[in-house]
Fold:
Amino acid sequence: MTTATNETTPAATGAPRGTGSTTTRVLGLTALVGVGVLVGLGLFWSPPEEVQGDLARIMYVHVPSASLAYLSCFVTAAGSVMYLWKRSEWWDTLAYASAEIGALFMAFACITGSIWARPTWGTFWVWDDARLVTSAMLLLLLLGYLALRKVPGDPDVRAKRSAWLGVLLPINVVLVRQSVEWWRTLHQKATLQPLGGGAKIEDLMLFSLFVGFVVLTLVWVWLLIHRFRLAWLERRVEERELSVAIDERRAEARVSGSGAARFGSAIGPGGGP
Amino acid sequence: MEPVIRFRGAVALVGRFPALAGVDLDVGRGEIVLLQGPNGAGKTTLLRTCAGLLPVVSGEAVVLGHDLRRERRGVRAHVGLLGHASGLYGDLTVEENLRFWTRAAHLELSTVDEALATMGLDGRLRSVTVNRLSAGQRRRTSFACLLARRPELWLLDEPHAGLDNDARDLVDTVIRDAAAAGATVLVASHELERAVSLAERVVVVSGGMVTSDSLRAGDPGPLAQQPEAHGVS
Amino acid sequence: MFRDAALVAAKDLRLEARSRVAFNQIAPLALVILLLFAFALDPARGVLARAAPGLFWVAVLLCALFAVQRAFAIESGDGRSDALRLSGLDPAGIFLGKVAAIALELAALEVLLGLGVAVLYDASFGGWVLLVATGASATAAIAAAGTLYGVLAAGLRVRETLLPLLLLPVLAPVLIGSTRAFEAAFSGVPADGWPWLGLLTLFALVYLVAGALAFGSLLEDM
Structure:
């Protein structure tokens, strides 16, 4: 019991030592078991699809991960809006964590999609499907967002710039999707059915897909919580550096009588920004 | 009377660096205050903070009735900041620069001619592009921009730097006239004799705090602040 | 707001006229890009004439990157960004002024590129109404989005590389839309082009509003 209190006390004071907690451990274990079940269902217990055969099995992870990537995009946008409104670090961190997990899931969705497309369509990539192109564009937009986040500098400035970028994310996705859809349909009919479309789906396959959604959502939540906590701790480290810097700065005032030479080394604003 | 500047334990950041680490300062209307201190002490930061350019993250900071912690943009139209840099467009002429910044401040252009004449820029220099000016001429142009904008609070960072003696005298006269007309002036300067003769009050900044605040006579006096008194949180 | 916008636009255009960076560097660069496309695609098989609308807009996008970088380069350095913040100008006005200046520069460039495409690629023009309307909408869209993303990247040490990464994916709908509309105009079936004009106009409006809202807050850290 003592260890349990030792673990929870720092968390209660807002200074956890790690990113794990009882909740995330339970969640992580559930997700892990879920992945096991999904592997069983997806690879062994569910029947092969009539037309595509075993190829269709990839959709049990592909479809959920693509959907969760879009969800991430909207969580990032929501976090960004809330940050601009409330200026709270919590929402900024949520937007950041969600964008990173979103990029991961979207990359995974694009890769699994390409793997599926190669034997099915005979090519890794086609331009006819609005969903494909939009997804790729969302991945690029998320990478741009993350690139801006990784630029070193004042956290508040970074948060504000990122928030405006995050707000524009879904707007851009909608505009891209609209243009890509028209681009193809105005010229030629979509020749290829989107993934899984038109094929008969048996109950067990539908159930597998459902399990895929549940399990990947669990993984998504688990990753999001951990990424959020990690980013939060990173900010705490930065803040601790700030309070140390304020103390050092004040110490300068106390020893200021001892000559101007020591101020030469201080990164002062005198000649600076 | 409401002071023009009222700082209590103000902490301001330059990036992640607390260049002001708890400043206490009161300045009344019409005062000319000289800021002194070694390089990197926070003089420039103090001026830029007063101009509403830097975020105040802790303490209290009110300038011209604007609370800088809540909203620091409101004060900007009422201050004139002469920094180390000129703030001029190199490819525009002296007059075009003045006209642009004056019109930007929503002021009548009549102040432009006046400011040009005061700073001795109304002759040939008027239509020379700033790129072709000498450092001193550029400084005078920046000063003329400030003058044309008629600010209530003047924040001058080394106003004498790069000027010849005549121009320095001119700058001093302009500052005195402005203060006499009700403007408040903060001057950071290393030109001790000149600046001390200009200002009736000397504030020493060091390590991002005000360490001494005295009238010209040199005695610490009742204005001296106790920097330790205010915490940061 | 519009008074401030006019002031800023006039100032930017005057600076551009004096420094001639747009005229001396960006315009020749646009022609170089046109030549490079010709080298990359075999001109003998008529590929160029067919791809002309797309190549035209790709060239415009690349040049727009430079125009945006320029628009913020003139505000950086020697205390100018501080002066701009202290100026009393309405941030939305600054944004619209910069958009207007960039748009006018791009419009001049597009005329030049249009001539280049006609001469070098042997493309035939038609559907002038659609052509001009598309050009105006797309230019406004590029300038508005460019200015917003320009200020997002301004002041960062990595701005030269960050701006294209942020801006070009966002402009993909503009590229698609303007290219299709031009194709429709060239091939003499302007009816196909009008929906695209709507999309471009919507894009431009979205970014004009977003930029006017966001610019004040982003200008703080430029």
